[in-house]
């Protein structure tokens, strides 16, 4: 049986992600993040995935390559919640670049300077 209908997404993370994780002091979040990354390709395959998975396209960035999204419902098992963490990522031609991860309690919005730093080129 062939899995030819399954498309493969290449997922990369920017170097700053390690620093982001050091700022998040929640036990088990690393495992939750890994689960999110494994599920992300399947979510991206869904038609209009962003409407159903708590994703919002970030607008007002100017010229960027592909689309930039904020995942607003990243599940955290240890906190028993789905709305405290944000993951910012770029999607272009089956490639995903994870740009930022943050805890909503520490700050309210994404780092637009970081987004622009990475999203002017393909992932």
Q: Would you write up a description of this structure?
A:
It comes from Fermentimicrarchaeum limneticum. This is Type II toxin-antitoxin system RelE/ParE family toxin. The protein has 123 residues and is an alpha+beta fold. The chain has one domain (10-119): RelE-like (YaeB-like fold), CATH 3.30.2310.20. It has helices spanning 16-23, 29-45, 49-52, 112-119; strands spanning 10-13, 55-57, 67-71, 85-92, 95-103. Strands 1-5-4-3-2 form a 5-stranded mixed beta sheet. The protein is globular, with a radius of gyration of 14 Å. Residues 1-5 have low confidence and may be disordered.
SSE diagram, text form:
Elements: E1 10-13, H1 16-23, H2 29-45, H3 49-52, E2 55-57, E3 67-71, E4 85-92, E5 95-103, H4 112-119
Parallel strand pairs: 1-5
Antiparallel strand pairs: 2-3, 3-4, 4-5
Organism: Fermentimicrarchaeum limneticum
Protein name: Type II toxin-antitoxin system RelE/ParE family toxin
